[in-house]
Write a structure and sequence with these properties.
Layout lengths: L7 E8 L6 E5 L17 E8 L7 E5 L2 E5 L6 E8 L9 E2 L3 E4 L7 E2 L7 E4 L8 E4 L10 E4 L2 H5 L3 E4 L2 E7 L2 E8 L6 H19 L11 E9 L4 E4 L3 E7 L8 H11 L26 H18 L9
Parallel strand pairs: 15-16, 16-18
Antiparallel strand pairs: 1-6, 2-5, 2-9, 3-6, 4-5, 7-8, 8-13, 10-12, 11-13, 14-15, 17-18
């Protein structure tokens, strides 16, 4: 991201061990947890490819979300492209002079028929940006480098990049990180205390926390406090939350959002309608059970707030 003020992420993919005459690269058309088709490929520009000798190879877009690279017998190709990102929601990606947020489905392509092939992600933050927050497992000794076990985990791991604030604490036997962008002055002790109560009450419903035995045994909250707007999106060991910076400390609505997305750690991410994983990232994923996936979660967000002591039985 050499020029974040332009709102373009610069992506490079190194693809090894090729044996076919061509390799197809695809981009998801939607993102897990937000089931509307969004056609992320429309934001891709400047797609190009070279071989190991830095010689250009033919590359063409063959349908709305697929690019075909002719290998010419090469065992390795390097693909580069740009992605325009200037919509700050939990479903999209965003980049400006202050920070970057990556919803992987909307930025990164994947190699067709290699969705279970492990990979490595290297992030190059802009200038003096010194922090990356994500649920992906970090590679020890290699700054801003992360293991990608498979495509499903990669797509389900949002990334915050910049100079944002981050703190961590233990709750329910799991390390939790909180990355906050949008305010510099906040009551960390209060947020930690309230988040802990939500986490403990949620975990008590099921008796165990799935993150205790998943990847790096941690969970990441990415919190965007903005002038307006709001929402949340659940992920396998993280969540993205967006809320008003003027209202997040008022009442219990923000904590309700926290409880809602954290409850999804079980309901939807582990207990889910069959069509909602493993995913088809190129087409709509239909299910008549969103009433269960979201309806149960809406009900239990209030149960969690009640059991955590944030609302009374009368308010419930």
């Amino acid at each position: 991201m050499p020029a974040p003020h332009t709102h373009y992420f610069e992506v490079e993919m190194q693809i090894d061990d090729l044996s076919d005459a061509y390799v197809d690269l695809k981009m998801a058309v939607w993102t897990p947890g937000s089931y509307l088709v969004r056609e992320y490929a429309r934001h891709v520009e400047g797609f190009r490819a070279v071989d190991a000798n830095n010689q250009p190879v033919s590359a063409n877009k063959i349908n709305k979300n697929t690019w075909r690279v002719q290998t010419n017998g090469a065992k390795k190709v390097v693909v580069k492209y740009s992605v325009y990102a200037f919509e700050l929601t939990v479903r999209t990606s965003f980049l400006n002079a202050a920070h970057g947020y990556v919803n992987p489905a909307s930025v990164f392509m994947f190699v067709d028929k290699q969705t279970n092939t492990p990979a490595e992600l290297v992030i190059q933050p802009f200038g003096d940006w010194d922090r990356v927050s994500t649920g992906l497992p970090a590679v020890p000794g290699k700054p801003f480098t992360y293991n990608i076990p498979n495509l499903d985990i990669f797509i389900d791991s949002p990334i915050e990049i910049g100079k944002h604030k981050e703190f961590s604490f233990d709750a329910a036997g799991v390390k939790h990180r909180v990355a906050i962008f949008g305010v510099d002055d906040f009551d960390q002790a209060k947020i930690e205390r309230e988040f802990k109560a939500v986490i403990e009450a949620s975990t008590a419903i099921f008796g165990e926390n799935p993150c205790a035995n998943y990847l790096d045994k941690d969970y990441t909250f990415i919190v965007h406090l903005t002038a307006s707007g709001g929402g949340g999106l659940e992920h396998l060991n993280s969540t993205s939350l967006q809320y008003s910076r003027n209202l997040y400390q008022v009442g219990t609505d923000f904590l309700g959002l926290v409880a809602h997305e954290y409850f999804h750690l079980w309901n939807v991410k582990r207990l889910r309608p069959a069509p909602l994983g493993p995913f088809d990232y190129e087409n709509e994923n239909y299910t008549p059970l969103l009433w269960q996936a979201e309806g149960f979660t809406v009900y239990y967000e209030d149960v969690i707030l009640l059991r955590a002591g944030f609302i009374s039985p009368t308010e419930f």
